[in-house]
Amino acid sequence: MCIFQDCSCLGHRCTGQENWVDSRTVYIGHKVPPPGAEAYIPQRYPDNRIVSSKYTFWNFVPKNLFEQFRRIANFYFLIIFLVQLIIDTPTSPITSGLPLFFVITVTAIKQGYEDWLRHKADNAINRCPVHVVQDGKVVCKQSRKLQVGDVVLVKEDETFPCDLILLSTSRDDGTCFVTTASLDGESSHKTYYAVQDTKAFNTEKEVDTLQATIECEQPQPDLYKFVGRISIYLDRDEPIARPLGSENLLLRGATLKNTAHIYAVAIYTGMETKMALNYQSKSQKRSAVEKSMNAYLIVYLCILISKALINTVLKYVWQADPDRDEPWYNQKTETERQRHLIRAFTDFLAFMVLFNYIIPVSMYVTVEMQKFLGSYFISWDDEMFDEELGEGALVNTSDLNEELGQVEYVFTDKTGTLTENNMEFIECCVDGHVYVPHAICNGQIMPGAASMDMIDSSPGIEGKEREELFFRAVCLCHTVQVKEEETVDGIKRGLHQGRTSSIYISSSPDEVALVEGMKRLGFTYLRLKDNHMEILNREDKMERFELLEVLNFDSVRRRMSVIVRSSSGELYLFCKGADSSIFPRIVSGKVARVQEHVEHNAVEGLRTLCVAYKKLSGEDYEEVCHHLSSARLALHDRDKKLAEAYDLIERDFILLGATAVEDRLQDKAADTIESLHKAGMKVWVLTGDKMETAAATCYASKLFRRSTQILELTTKRAEEQSLHDALFELSKTVLRQQGSMSRDTFSGLSGEFQDYGLIIDGATLSAVLKPAQEGGGGNYRDIFLEICRSCSAVLCCRMAPLQKAQIVKLIKASKEHPITLAIGDGANDVSMILEAHVGIGIMGKEGRQAARNSDYAVPKFKHLKKMLLVHGHYYYIRISELVQYFFYKNVCFIFPQFLYQFFCGFSQQPLYDTAYLTLYNISFTSLPILLYSLIEQHINADILKREPSLYRDIAKNSLLQWPVFIYWTFLGVFDAMVFFFGAFFLFDNTTFTSNGQMFGNWTFGTLVFTVLVFTVTLKLALDTHYWTWINHFVIWGSLLFYVIFSLLWGGIIWPFLNYQRMYYVFMQMLASGPAWLGIALLLVVSLLPDVLKKVLCRALWPTTTERMQTKRQCLTAEQSTIFMLSQTSSSISL
């Protein structure tokens, strides 16, 4: 079978230690190949069941528990709980077991519910009906029962149930239209092609007679890559082999459009489909706040161990005195006296249990709830809703809300992010002659564009032929599809001047704009029919060109070509692409004039493409076919062989001209970038566009100002001088100006310092990031970083997707470890979005892949301003207070317990009752801080948007720095000492009630606890700036709840307990006048230092935010006074 000689390496190949087959054979319709053909080897493949759920009914409990106890805090509390169960500890196991059980249960219910929803969605997909051809008939079966080799019938607007190879369609040319919105988000119609030898099988019976096998690669996740071969057994001895590529592969999740029906064979099913293989879990991103929390947790763990160790040592020092040993009736035996080490260890564990509440387990639950509930504020924001898309902002992960308030570097794509990706044909140039039609925008002719404006349109007779050849080239060199009906997907479109007009459909907005531009210049592309492209020339005569080959566009070549045969039999190869990929392949034409025009357009910010051609002889075409067929039939390294074939074919061109298309700047993009600069963020633009086009966009968007000194680090400069010299020269330039000035204060907005902007291209970046060779130059990376950090803005052009991620990774790993944000709208931005600390996708025209892989998604770039300056600011302020407050209130809670040990002989006697120990963090003090962390607004949202510099006040995690943490900790220690010693000295040796009853230890503990609860709650009330009825209800309601609970606990619930130590304690305390006076006095003393500190700091060293707050309060007071005066004057006049 010579047909397979070029791919003799097919078959079963083992790689490494794995018995892995690198290709699979699929028998269409499960038919055995004819006798004498290749051996029939049935293979087992998974069914079409999709599983996106994480748990099953049987493994949910063990698997979920295992995952939860992998968190250090949960594991720590589990150990404490087990210690309480095993040894005799001063507190009940319930005190730590109940909060832990609550945390684990709430988390398990949340995760279980989310997984149940996934199960529900899976079942809906797995049970949907699918039409399969069996024995010449169409039968209906559930999607999950579909098998590899089944022939499937799919009708219009149905979704493909698995990955399919297209066999035939209802269209005569064997094509079908597909939208892949659920895969890569592109809503534009893509064209797929049936195998030429099977497209005639149009009925169930005909398809059932088809005998063929498909050999293809094993499943892999790349959506745009597929290599295979179909062998069709007809009456002849040898099968016909045809190549299969991505243009024949219909992916699961895509939808059939504008095609009545298709027949296709299943090749990948279930979890082996490309969509399922792209279910990759993103790497876990951790915010700076979470890292601070973990650091604080370690500090408090050290404090806890220190407390337990000190108390254990002091206990044995205390008991070293014989008089202070066990009483005479409980003297230790000799055996007990010799067990010092074991007893000391159990005492240490007992103290650990007693003080373990200093580690706040409930903080983790509160933080989770705050992040989850707080994320809804982004989704609910009407200002971030886009009427055109009919969508608002999306939150894909709530773990990074506060990180939005810490961004230092913003990396943004250009096309579709800063610009609209809404192409408008501006002009074209043929041999230096310029043609400018009236406005044509995004494929739609604008109203009033009835005539055509031509500039310099007198090229002469020979030039006129070349001009028409150029127009034909643009009309033919594309992948645009034509929709001639009045409706596209049920939406009426294409009505122009009262008659039906063609609608152009393409995955590229550039192509639609170009074809519409040619239409306005007199050449109209009509359709592709029977493999012939039809165009209408200026004389309204139809010209037909047979489409022989399409060399598709790819991002590496940056060009595409078509080979066509005219009606007179002449063969043409038309090519269009980026100037950098066309000019080196030109052998004749007016290159200088066209290049000058291209550079002029690029400076104006227009997207340019060059157009070239060459004539082919019959021998040339045969050679082209040979190169392409040998490359396309290869199963291994097909992409590489195709690239080599394209390189051989696409050369020796004659230049025709160039086109210019404008991609307009998005609404308020310049204002957003200016605000980000004022907020202290560095903005980098990473784009694949040419330098001149990208630079023009950067000027328009105010990334660069006219006063900005542009530093270039490009291939052109690297050719003129070595990279080493160029880098050191730039380094000297920026560092000389910077001098002793701190980087943080450096800003392009200041007139005192020279503002620098850097432009670098992809090729130079690769050289900069290349590891230093042995004996070679130094490390350029550090010098490059130093230059970049001194520039207010950086433009990276001609960037590959992977290079975008490398840039982000480079900045992330620099010594300052800044917080980075990446924003983009296309599939080429996904790697950058996943690499950055925060990834934001734009719901753009390049698809939704970026939006789905991001942490947050917004409709437009302008929404980034509010997301960072308002939402990010609020989130950070709220969660910072939450974390510091939690540690503060736990220090206040446990430090009196530590002090109490010095007065009870280190006997591990608890100061507080078990109920208070258990409910302090769960009920008494949890709701006020949760509500604060959800709705606090320390300053008005409008002011935050108007004054971006306020963002600098919270930069670099300023509210969770060690000095702030130490202040909160010492404040907690001070308040705890006030509670304990204040109560101790105020009521020492005094009668407590009128009947002469003495002060008891449980009453003392209850008094301390009461002052504690009121102090920490009022402390939060003092920190609250934004008061609503909900704040009042929760803050005063939580205090009322504590009082009511204490009354019930001591007066009603006590008979049901196995101890009665709290009987009537709280009521007796409230019945005492001195107790009321003592509580009020201690509250004032404990809150006074914090109030004084705030007043002094605001008066002497106010932050920008505090100045704004004061200014706002003055304005409010002034407005109130004016209102009162106006009311008074009106009443007097009456």
Describe it for me?
The radius of gyration is 37 Å and the shape is elongated. Mean pLDDT is 80; it is low at 1-20, 439-457, 486-500 and 740-752. The chain contains 36 helices and 41 strands. It has 1134 residues and is an alpha+beta fold. The longest helix is centred in the C-terminal third of the chain and has 38 residues, at 863-900. β40, α26 and β41 (856-858) form a beta-alpha-beta unit. Its EC number is 7.6.2.1.
Strand content: 15-25%
The value of Rg in angstroms is 37 Å
The residue fraction in helices comes out at: 40-55%
Low-confidence parts, pLDDT < 50 over ≥5 residues? Answer: 1-20, 439-457, 486-500, 740-752
Essential attributes:
single chain, ATP-binding, alpha+beta, 1134 residues, 13-stranded mixed beta sheet, 44% helix, nine-stranded mixed beta sheet, 36 helices
Tell me the layout of helices and strands.
Blueprint: E1 23-27, H1 60-68, H2 72-86, H3 94-126, E2 129-134, E3 137-142, E4 151-155, E5 163-169, E6 175-180, H4 181-184, E7 186-193, H5 204-209, E8 212-217, E9 228-232, E10 240-244, E11 249-250, E12 255-257, E13 261-268, H6 274-277, H7 288-319, H8 334-337, H9 340-355, H10 361-374, H11 376-379, E14 394-395, E15 409-412, E16 419-430, E17 433-436, E18 440-441, E19 444-445, E20 453-454, H12 460-476, E21 481-483, E22 487-488, E23 491-492, E24 495-496, E25 499-500, E26 503-505, H13 509-520, E27 524-529, E28 532-536, E29 542-554, E30 559-565, E31 571-577, H14 579-582, E32 586-588, H15 591-603, E33 606-616, H16 618-633, H17 638-649, E34 653-665, H18 669-678, E35 682-686, H19 691-700, E36 709-713, H20 715-720, H21 723-738, E37 756-761, H22 762-769, H23 780-789, E38 793-797, H24 801-812, E39 820-824, H25 830-835, E40 838-842, H26 849-853, E41 856-858, H27 863-900, H28 914-924, H29 926-935, H30 941-946, H31 962-986, H32 1001-1023, H33 1029-1053, H34 1065-1070, H35 1073-1100, H36 1104-1133
Parallel strand pairs: 15-35, 15-39, 32-34, 35-38, 36-37, 37-38, 39-40, 40-41
Antiparallel strand pairs: 1-8, 2-3, 2-4, 4-13, 5-11, 5-13, 6-7, 6-12, 8-9, 9-10, 14-41, 16-17, 16-18, 16-34, 17-20, 18-19, 21-26, 22-23, 24-25, 27-28, 28-29, 29-30, 30-31, 31-33, 33-34
Transmembrane segments: 72-87, 295-318, 348-367, 915-935, 965-987, 999-1021, 1033-1057, 1063-1088
Enzyme class: translocase
Domain P-type ATPase C-terminal: 851-1103
